[in-house]
Amino acid sequence: MLAARAQAIKRLKQLHPFVEEGVLLSKLMAYCSKEAHSCVEKSAMICFVKLRILEPDDKCSLRGPTLRRAMEEDEAMGLIPFFVSTTLGTTSCCSFDALAEIGPICRLFSNVWLHVDAAYAGNAFILPEMKHFLNGIEYADSFNTNPNKWLLVNFDCSTMWVRDRLKLTSALVVDPLYLQHGYSHSTIDYRHWGVPLSRRFRSLKLWFVIRSYGISGLQDYIRHHCQLAKHFEALVRKDNRFLVCNEVKLGLVCFRLKGTDKLNEKLLSNINASGKLHMVPANVNDRYTIRFCPTAQNATVEDVEYAWSVITEFATDLIELQMLEKEQENADEVFELADRKKKEALAYKRSFFVRMVSDPKIYNPKIAKSLSGGRRHTSHVTDDDDDIEAPESSAVAVNTPVASWISWPLAFLFQEAGANELAVRFRHLDTLVRLPAKKEGSSSRRSSCSPSPDNSNSKSPSRSPVLGRRKPPSPN
User: Fold this and answer.
1) pTM metric for this prediction
2) Taking 50 as the threshold, does the pLDDT of residue 312 lie above it?
3) What are the pLDDT digits (tens) for 254-294?
4) Secondary structure (H, E, C), 107-173
5) Dihedral angle at the C-alpha atoms of 126, 128, 129, 130, nearest 10 degrees?
6) Which is one GO molecular function term here (predicted)?
7) Local structure of residue 404 (DSSP, 8 states)
C-alpha cells in the first residue's frame, strides 16, 4: 500500500503540480472485502488513506461489479481509487474473491495497484489440481503467501512477489551516506524492500523444509490435510444438529450448532476450556461460527474422529442443559401467569364490588326488588323501573329506613347470609340500613351467628370494618 500510495501521489503531482501533497493524499481511496484480513485496515491507518470495505456475495466472495460500482461512485465524488486488496482463501472461511472479474476492472482505472493475499491458500497452489484458484493472477501487481501456515515452516515466514520491484523500492528508499556501500548496484539491498532497516535470515528455514520433504512430500502433506477436512465435513453433515457454513475447498471447515450465537459461543468456550481441543471462531455471514482446521503434521483420520466425538459430547451436554433451563423457565412462566391471573381476578372482584356499591350505573332493580321498603332512590332512571312492582306487603314501618343504591348490595349480601335483622351504617355516608326478619325456617345454619332482632339497638363495636359509629340522636 505504501508503494501504491507513492505511485499515485507521483502521478497526481504531475497532473496538479500546485496542489499540496496533503490535499492529494486526502483524495486517495483503497478497497477491500469485508472478509479481508485486518492487516489491510491497519495498513490504511499507517498510510493515512481512506479505505472502503465492500460487501461480498453470499459465498463471501468479492465480485467485480461490486468493486466497479464502488470505484465509479467514489470517482464521481472526486476521490481517486489507487489500491485494491483481494484475498484467495480468506481467514474466516477460506473463500476466494473473483480475481478474474476484479483484475480487468482495475485496469479500467489508471494506476490502480492490485494486491493478492493468499497467506493460507497460496501454499496449496503447489498442487496442480489447485491451480484453477489462480485464474486472473496475471492482473496482480503483488502476491504473497505464508509458508509458516501450511508448509511446515515455523513462524514467521512470508514470501512476496511484485511485478515491478522498482515501484516498491522507490517508495521506501532512504539512502544516507553511512548506509551506502560499494556493492549497491550489484546486490539486492533488502532495506529498500520493506519498513525495517534490517531483516532476519528467514529464507534458510524454508530452504531446509523444501530440501527435507521435496515437492512431492509437501504435496502429499497438503492433500492429506484436505482429505481430513473433507472427512470432518462429512461427519458434521451426518449430524442434523449442526450446519456447515462454508464451501470446504481446502483444509478449513466452518460449522455451527443450530441455535443462537450465544449457544455456539458457549460450546466453543467449553471445548477450549477442557484442553482436549482448540478451535478459533469467526463471523461468517454475520453469524458466529467455529473453525476446524487440521494443523498437526502427522494428523490422522482417528484424530479427526476423536475431535468430532469431543465436539458432539460437549454439544449434547450443552443442549440438555439448555433444555432443563428452558423447562425451568417455562415452569416459572406458568407460575407467574397463574399468579398474575389470580391477582387480576382478585383485583377485578374488588373493583366490581366497589363499583357495585357506589356506582348507580350498574344498579340492578331486580335485586333491589327483594329488599324491604316501598321506594328506592337512584340517581339514574332506567327502563327497568317500569317493570318494578311494589312489594306484596305494603305495610312498612314508619321508622324503617328506605333502601338506596348505596346500601342495597350490602343488604342483599347480609340477607343471603341469613341475618334476621342487622343495622348497617357506612362510615363515610349518613345512611342506615335495617333488614327485616326472615320467616322461620328460611335462615341458614349461619343465622345463629347473626345478630338477634332484640340486639339490633345494641352498641356496635367501636372499630368494626362494617359497622360505623351510630348516628347521634336528632334533637327533635
Assistant:
1) 0.66
2) yes
3) 999 998 899 999 999 999 999 999 999 999 988 999 999 99
4) HHCCCCEEEEECCCHHHHHHCHHHHHHHCCHHHCCEEEECHHHHCCCCCCCCEEEECCHHHHHCCCC
5) 40
6) pyridoxal phosphate binding
7) B
